[in-house]
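Table S2 (continued). Query chain:
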Amino acid sequence: MERILICDDERDIVSALSIYLAAEGWEPVAAYSGAEAVTLAQSGTIQLILMDIMMPEMDGITAMAEIRTFSNVPIILLTAKSEDSDKILGLNVGADDYITKPFSPAEVVARVRSQLRRYLKLGSAAPSSADVLTVGDITLDLQAKSATLSGVPVNLTPIEYHILLLLMQHPGKVFPPKEIYQSVWKTNPEGSENTVAVHIRHLREKLEINPQEPRQIKVVWGQGYKIEKA
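Corresponding output:
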């Protein structure tokens, strides 16, 4: 049973989310501050985190940044409609997705299920006959579910892994942001351009010698993104 950490200083929200998730067979774990979430995440027994942004003591962005120093579990931010700048900041710090309040039970369950599927079964979309996928200096080990750059391990989040996997399965093909979003997030691509751009930038920072002049992960202006053929 997957354990899902729910962190929000509003206890009614934590209670409601716990009911939604428990009904799907997951085990909810409650936290009411960012600091408490960090402590619980350090146990290594959490498979996904739902994190509110606006909290006293330690806000969600700060807590997420701390968690990202030791864990790559999927983190979904809980945001208000007025917090657009915080959404982008959250993606920059390491969030995998976000849900805007007020949210429906169906949306929460769908997004949690989607993120858990990627995290627990990384690489499942790749052909079963291929154990290693290499393009240029980048290699994905589909059995170990890991990435290396010129033989050096690279630490990717689940979303980064799946964007890279999609590009590497089709070297040279240009993917519009909406197509990447639909393929990886499997949800409505509204507002997808900024979200995808943030994750592409993170991939470049981790995989390019000079992220400002990338050799492999390229943007085709007005069209989308691609990875150069070897």
